[in-house]
Write a structure and sequence with these properties.
By secondary structure, this protein is α/β, with parallel strands linked by helices. It is 49% helix and 15% strand. Strand 1 (2-6), helix 1 (11-23) and strand 2 (28-30) form a beta-alpha-beta unit. The chain binds D-ribose. The site of D-ribose has 8 residues, from helix 3. It is an enzyme of class 5 (isomerase).
């Protein structure tokens, strides 16, 4: 299950990404926003990140105007590795090296075609593990320490 969320600044692109996931037959759930009214991005970032953090969704995609606000919010959650990407290389590396479980995009930064290519790259790239797992383990350990 892939959960999707956006604010008004990411609504249009989020809807395009939803179409892509549906075309590919991937189960997805749109947690809003559902219209162009001005909303607060943390509300939707929390909804998506909570689902991934708790394990009821495997992955999430978040879109706000720049992607910055959504990535700040999502990375507050334990176990979340939310990656803000601006091109296909970053989206690929977000999976290959960081095993990002949430991809964050900027609706006012990307055109639809580029965003589709990025989502495709993130979905289709395998996590390389190996030396990268050691690094992710350090992040997990840090989360434990900071939690006290
Ligand atoms: C909303 O105008 C805008 O601030 C938001 O979409 C996002 O870019 C925040 O990081």
């Amino acid at each position: 299950m892939i959960v999707l969320g956006s604010d008004h600044g990411g609504l249009e692109l989020k809807n395009e990404i939803k179409k892509l996931l549906e075309e590919r037959g991937l189960p997805c759930e749109d947690l809003g926003t559902h219209n162009g009214d001005s909303v607060d991005y943390p509300d939707f970032g929390v909804a998506v990140a909570r689902r991934v953090s708790e394990g009821s969704a495997e992955k999430g995609i978040l879109v706000c105007g720049t992607g910055i606000g959504m990535s700040i919010v999502a990375n507050k959650f334990p176990g979340i590795r939310a990656a803000l990407a601006t091109d296909v290389f970053m989206a690929t590396m977000a999976k290959e090296h960081n095993n990002a479980n949430i991809l964050v995009l900027g609706g006012r930064v990307l055109d639809t075609q580029k965003a589709r290519e990025m989502v495709t790259a993130w979905l289709d790239t395998a996590y390389a593990a190996g030396r990268h797992q050691n690094r992710l383990d350090k992040i997990t350990q840090l989360e434990r320490e900071l939690k006290g």
